[in-house]
Specification:
By secondary structure, the protein is of the alpha+beta class. It is built from eight helices and twelve strands.
Length: 441
């Protein structure tokens, strides 16, 4: 369901309910208001009857002659609204506004609603100077008048309902225009267009969405640039060993000298090893882009496993590979990624140091972090190259070991994914690589 339909599905019934409740409240309030006005009219008519009885027949007192000059007025029943009577102190009816509808003396002192002759009457009665004055009005007449006035008050409400519906429709459509504009802009772009979305003059909520999309586009752009550079570097690095492999195979095929063929075969094996290692490291770099499951990892136990796996390589060069640890040291991370990081550090050390050298893996802890170190007694890395050795495919000058320049780049990537800091401080021997995991990681 579209946002427009969702908003209309919520707003229109809500508006209809709110307007209906408001109309009902206005109708009830109008009825009550008209009723109060009508009661006020009853009271005023009763008070005025004390001072004026013209326009209505007067009933003579006992022993009094009738006033033959007085005109008898009988109101039209269809237009009849009020009936008023006056009784004297002796209880005799002395005045009636309508002789056809003479109500009995109800004796009320104030207002009341009384049934009489199949009708309900609204009656006001009061005693003034010994006389009792009573004024009544048919309830049906009151209800009709009140309903008519209240109905007129509802006319604006009835007009307001469709007006609010249209206003809501157009308001939602206008409010969603920026989203349509953004969707149209993105739809017209090519697959390689990662330019930011203009956020100027956008509403605040849409601006937040556009800003988030721009941040995503920026991250994608950076990621694509890294991938392009990585592919270009990988292609360049693969081209050299593959060319060398082809060259060695040609030499072997043309060579008639066993020594020359043996040398070509040896170089071919080295090329295959280098290419195989390069492909494996490329796959490792690709896996680093995927976020793995993090858990509590014991660096001490992990180091012992890695040292055990690489011990045969170290023994082949008579290298002393050892571990210095004070016991279990847990960090929060991906176990396989941390294994790859440590294996790269130890493997690099084995490849680059001379025979009968030594490699120490150390695990320690200070107040702020857990520290993993790998130190060897090899040639080390010159000071001016220490910043570059973490770049992909960079190999130091004068390096004769088989490698692709990805080892320390992999180490740095894994360390950053664990919020750890990797550095090359000056060691007492050759090269010291330190990885510091922050406390709580």
């Amino acid at each position: 369901m579209s946002i427009r339909k969702r908003l209309l599905a919520w707003l229109l019934p809500g508006l209809l309910l709110a307007v209906s409740l408001a109309g009902f409240a206005i109708y009830r309030e109008t009825l009550e208001g008209v009723s109060r006005v009508q009661d006020y009219a009853l009271r005023q008519i009763a008070y005025s009857m004390e001072y004026s009885n013209r326009g209505a027949p007067r009933f003579p007192e006992e022993g009094e002659e009738p006033d033959n000059e007085q005109d008898e007025i009988i109101p039209d029943n269809d237009n009849f609204e009020y009936a008023g009577e006056i009784w004297n102190h002796a209880g005799r009816l002395t005045l009636a506004s309508n002789p056809e509808w003479i109500l009995p003396k109800f004796g009320l002192n104030g207002f009341g609603t009384i049934p009489w002759h199949g009708r309900k009457w609204r009656v006001f009665g009061t005693s003034v100077k010994g006389e009792y004055i009573q004024v009544a009005q048919p309830q049906i007449s009151r209800s009709r008048a009140a309903a008519g006035i209240a109905g007129q008050a509802l006319v604006p409400i009835l007009i307001l309902i469709p007006a609010l519906g249209l206003l809501t429709w157009f308001g939602i459509s206008y409010g969603l225009k920026p989203l349509k504009r953004i969707a149209s802009d993105l739809d017209q772009r090519g697959a390689d267009s990662l330019q930011p979305i203009p956020v100027k003059s956008l509403p605040e909520e849409v601006g937040l969405l556009a800003a988030a999309l721009n941040a995503l586009l920026e991250r994608l752009s950076d990621s694509f640039k890294l991938q392009k550079n990585f592919i270009a570097d990988a292609a360049h690095e693969l081209r050299t060993p593959l060319t060398a492999l082809m060259l060695q195979t040609e030499i072997m095929s043309r060579s008639r000298d066993e020594a020359e063929a043996a040398e070509a075969f040896r170089k071919l094996q080295q090329g295959i090893q280098r290419s195989s290692r390069l492909v494996a490291q490329l796959l490792t770099m690709a896996r680093l882009e995927e976020e793995g499951n993090f858990e509590s990892v014991d660096l001490d136990a992990l180091s012992r496993e890695v040292i055990g796996d690489l011990e045969p390589l170290a023994q082949a060069k008579c290298i002393d590979l050892g571990l210095e640890s004070g016991g279990a040291a847990f960090v929060h991370g991906n176990r396989e990624a941390l294994r790859t990081m440590l294996a790269n550090l130890v493997d690099n050390a084995i490849r680059y140091i001379q025979e009968e050298g030594s490699i120490d893996v150390r695990i320690g802890r200070d107040e702020m972090s857990t520290i993993l170190e790998v130190e060897d007694d090899g040639p080390g890395i010159p000071e001016e190259e220490r910043e570059r050795v973490f770049d992909r495919f960079y190999r130091g000058l004068g390096s004769n070991a088989i490698g692709s320049g990805l080892g320390l780049s992999i180490v740095k990537g894994i360390a950053e994914s664990h919020d750890a800091l990797v550095s090359l401080p000056k060691g007492s021997k050759g090269l010291l690589v330190r990885v510091e995991f922050p406390e709580g990681s």
